[in-house]
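>> received
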Amino acid sequence: MVRVVLGGVVVAFVVSLVAAGSGTPVLAQAKPQKLDFAYILAPPESGAVAFKWMAEEVTRRSHATLTVVFHGGTLLNKELEIMDAVKSGNVAIGSPSGAASTVFPELGVFLVPYLVRDYAHAYKMFNGEIGRSLDEQFQRKYRLKILLFFDYGFRHFWNNKRPIAKPDDLKGLKLRVQQGKVFADTVNGLGANAVPMSWSEVVPAAQQGVIDGADLPIVNINALKIYEVSRYASMTFHNYGPSLVVMNLDMWKSLTPEAQKLLTEVSREAQAKVREATESVDNLERAREILEAKGMKVNASDVAAFRKVAEEKVWPLYQKQYAELWDRIVSTR
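>> returned
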């Protein structure tokens, strides 16, 4: 039995499955089931493009008997509102987007600089044993089913003063960081001066010289037009921030195994689409191609030197706090 709130009225659907002549699973039920999917941004942002496709594809493959409706930037306009709605069951599926570690502190360990080595390391963890363990934990603790992990790409420093090729280049720079201790510890530990600030203040602060720069993935430096307020982008790869898409657990459990399988398969395909969008631009050649045409200078950085500083200055602050998961992350190959 699935309960969906529509206009304040609780409507119940009985769900069963029959096989379509094409071999595609189809839901046979009194009325088609509707699942709302809330996301803070709309296309052409990379996650929004993939998740809109995901909603449409589940609907198509189920022949509209399982209808997923994507609401990008329209249903709810804050990450915490979206997560509260999913936890309560007023919305079936949602994402905390960039606020994932705020909503789910368990993800904070992955933000420690250079602990996640590269994309292969990240997806070996999240599509493997660590991801399964987190899914089980979230089901018990939050009553949420994890459908997929994704990211916006590794973060890189941008600023108006100079290229950042080595750790010493950070000295004296005032760099905006997100709210959260790990972000300030990262920037301060690597050698700059962290300035906690909400995103809405960043662009005017950069224009007025209140800050010298900040950090963002390449895909977002481009999408947010940082090239209009900054001269330099430096490929430091210093921070990996995972996010995820979750579903209300009661709604998930009310689906038949076949419906769950369909949603799982399409979720993994959507994950691949986000990965392609973010990873394809997260290298020196593509970053230069995209950003230098718009006036920025993009440079390579000595990642090994930055990693050494992070291991000495930042890792000791978090290794004991996340002891068990830390060892599993480091040992994942």
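>> The domain at 2-103+119-151+242-279 is CATH 3.40.190.170 (D-Maltodextrin-Binding Protein; domain 2).
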